[in-house]
Design goal:
It is a single chain. The protein has 486 residues and is of the alpha/beta class. It contains 14 helices and 20 strands. The strands form 5 sheets. Strands 14-15-16-13-12-17-18 form a 7-stranded mixed sheet, with helices on both faces. A hairpin with a 2-residue loop joins strand 1 and strand 2. The longest helix has 21 residues. The protein is globular. The termini are far apart. The model has no long low-confidence stretch (mean pLDDT 98). It binds adenosine-5'-diphosphate. Adenosine-5'-diphosphate binds next to helix 7 and helix 8.
Length: 486
Amino acid sequence: MALTLKDPSLLATKAYINGEWVDSDDGSTFDVLNPATGELIAKVASCGGAEARRAIEAANAAQPAWAKRTAKERADILHRWADLIVENADDLAVIMTVEQGKILAEAKGEVVYSASFITWFAEEGRRVYGDVIPTNANDRRLIAIKQPVGVVAAITPWNFPAAMLTRKAGPALAVGCTFIMKPAKETPLSANALCVLAERAGIPKGVVNLVCGSSASAIGNELTGNPLVRKVTFTGSTPVGKLLLAQSAQTVKKVSMELGGNAPVIVFDDADLDRAVAGAAAAKYRNAGQTCICANRILVQDTIYDAFVEKFSKVVAGYKVGNGLEKGIHIGPLIHEKAAADVIGMVDDAVKDGAKVAVGGKRHALGGAFLEPTVLTDVNPSMRVFREEIFGPVAPVFKFSSEEEAIRMANDTEFGLAAYLYTGNMGRAFRVSEGIEYGMVGINETAISSEVIPFGGVKESGLGREGSKYGVDDYLEIKLLCLGGL
Ligand code: ADP
C-alpha cells in the first residue's frame, strides 16, 4: 500500500453504522484508486439500500437523546472533533491527496478548513434563539421555538472530500440532528477518517453514520425515500441534484442543494491588471479546476484583452503538473482518466470551432488523468466552454466591450453560484454586483470561501446557504407555541 501514515488507524475501510465498523451485508468491496498513479489504495465496504436503512434506523434511534443534550454539551464534543482533525491534519492530507489527487498543500488547507466548520457551528448551535411574538389577543401568548429537523442524510462529492461533509455535519450535529453520510466512491477514505475521529471525540453511537458503495443510487434511493430521513443535503452536479429533489419530494423532505456553477471572472479595463491575472489564475487552477466556484469563463474588456492574455498565459505556463505528494507541484491529476478525456473533449470542440490555444491544450506527458493547464482565446458564447462547467484546468478567455454586455454574458447561463469582477471603479463594482444573478460575488477577490460566509447559489446552482450564521437555519424547524386561556 502506497500510504504511510503516522496513525495508520485513520485508514478505515468499513462502513460505520450505529457506532460499529461493519462489512457490507454481502461482503463486497469497491476499489479506491490513486488518480496520480492508478494504484489501488484500499478496498472499501460496498453498501447498498439495506445498510443505508440500518444507518437511518440507528440515526433515528439516537436522535432524541442527542437533541436532549444541551447545546454546550454538543459543542464540547464537536470542539474535540475539530481539535482531533487539526491534530491529525498531516495524515488526513496524505489520505486526501492519494485518493483525490489535489496537491498536498491544498489537501492540508482543506483539512483545516473542514475543521473550521465544526468549530464555527459548535458555537452557532449555542445561539439558536426563538422568539416571543407580540400577541394578537390578551388571553394568549405566542412563542416560536426552534428544534432540530431530525435525521439528516448528506450526499457529498469527491472534489472536497472533507469540507463538504463537515459543512453539513457541523450544523446538523450542533443543533441536535443525527447524521448519515454518503461520500463519493472516489474519496471515501477521507470521510471514513473523519468518522474515526468523530468516534474518538466521543460522538455517541448512531449520531454519525457512514455508508458508501459502488452504486450511489442504491443508497440514494433509500436516503431519499425513507420517511425517517427528514432532510437531504447534497453537494454535487445539477442533474443529480434534480434527481434527488424529485425523489425527496415523495416524502416532502427539507433539502439543501449546492449544485454546479459556471463562474465568470469579469475584468474591466479600469482594473488592477496584475491583481486580476493573479486572482483569475488562482480561481481557475485550484484543485486542478475541479471546484464549483472555479473561474469557468474569463470575460475581459476588449481594450485590455491582449495584455491580459499575455500576462495570464505567462503565469499558467509556469505551473508544474505532477503527483500532488511531490514538492513544487501546482496542479495534480484530475479525479480519473474519464474526467480528463471529457475536459479535453471540450477543448477539442472549441478548437474545431475556431478557438486558439495560447497555453497547453493537450493531455500532459505524464498521461493518465493529467492535463496540461490550458488557456484558450478566440472563444465565443456558442461553445461548450462557455455553456458548460469545465471542471478541469482550462481557461477560456472571452471578450466584451461594455458593462452591459459583460452583465449579459455573465447572466447567460442556467447557473448562478459564484462570480468575480475586477474594477477600480466603486460605482461599477456595485452596479455589476447587483446586476448579476449569482449567490456570491467576489469584487477584486477570488478567495471568497470560509466558514463565516453564506455559501450558495441561485437559479440551477442550488437551494439554501451553508456556513455563516445562516447555515444552521436549514437544519432547524420553527415550532409555534400558542398559550391560550391566560
Ligand atoms: P460529480 O460530477 O462531482 O461526480 P455527482 O453529482 O455525480 O457529481 O456526484 C456527487 C455525489 O452524488 C456523489 O456522492 C455521488 O456518488 C452521488 N450520486 C450520484 N448519483 C446519485 C444517485 N442517483 N443517487 C444518490 N447519489 C448519487
